[in-house]
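Morning run. Coffee first, then this:
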Amino acid sequence: MLEILPKHQPVQERFRPHFSRTFFAFSIGAVALFSVGFLSGKLLTSKQFATKIAQLDVKGTSEEKTFPLLKYSFSELEKRGGVASEIIVDRILTRTPEFTAYVFHFESEGRKISGQLNIPTNDNPAEARPIILLMRGYVAPEEYSIGKGSSPTAAALAKAGYITLAPDFLGYGESDQPPVETLAERFIKPMNVMDLFATVDHLDQRTLAFQNKSLATIDAKRVGLWGHSNGGQISLSFLEITGRPVPTVLLAPVTKFFPYSVLYFTDEDDDKGKGLRAVIAKFEQDYNIDQFSIGNNLEHVTAKIQLHQGTADKEVPQKWSDDFYSYFAGKGKKDQIEYFTYPGADHLLIPVTDTVKERAIAFFDREVKNKKPEPTPTPTLTVTPTTSPAEILNATQSGDIKATPSATPGVNN
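And here it is:
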């Protein structure tokens, strides 16, 4: 199930004073401003006058309207950039022969965000390791535990030699609570991811430690991103805001614009989305909603992308991924994205999860580790005295098998 904003009671309509009352207050304010300017010996310019009038409310007070959510717009986040903190390793979560999982936390906007850190077993902690950041999809808060939604892939990546970081997000795991305002809780996530990336950059070639013991050294120049469902939307937000060429794997991502991407799922709400629609309608009165949504500046996405989609997904329609791929193909950027569909697979890519993980690891090995894929060995047919001429002919004509003559005299005359 995808992350759906919490239900809200219908928002009360904004009080709209009667026209005559508004006009009367406006007139009194205008006369007062003119009188003050005249008596002080200074006439206000038309621009100053208009500004002062705009600040007057119907009661005649001078209060500027604030826009607290503006800092979460993509343009403002681009200006802000990521703010680095530190990765603090808190405790061991699980230990396996191939890797150890830890609980970690970092800070963003003054709030603690916990998550799962996997470190491959290694006798040389000074060896710099590549790192993958994982963004999970929605999990109901009452069902959540640290790492849920990303731990199977994180384990596979750790076994393949990657450090992994999977944030829980605010309100989950051992994290602080998110902002009270509903939309702020949604909009703050790309900011949190930007801060986590900035923290990783800050830790480049530095060694993570736990209880005075060195664990691993981060190679921030070799970093990748993985996102599933709503985590895919958060990952795309990061790529669109920053323009960073971070190799990214997306599983059944939410790629449609806001607010359609959340309203699409409100048929599951008790009120059929009535409360959420009221919140969004109020939001649109004050803000340009396009500034808070993916899809408006996809040309800023420079990362190589691997996209996976199940055809039986009941949460994210296959058409969303089809359209996303078509955007890049239509722009002549097919080399930027590879797209896999899986007949009969659901939103969690069951029953092909192992195939998806293998393809993701191969992608990261190529794009993050810069590891050249090993050439597939050409199958050979060893010609022996008992090999029939028909077998040799079929093998060589098929192109799939190369016939290799044996050293037996007289066979390859």
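The first strand starts at residue 88 and ends at 95. Good start to the day.
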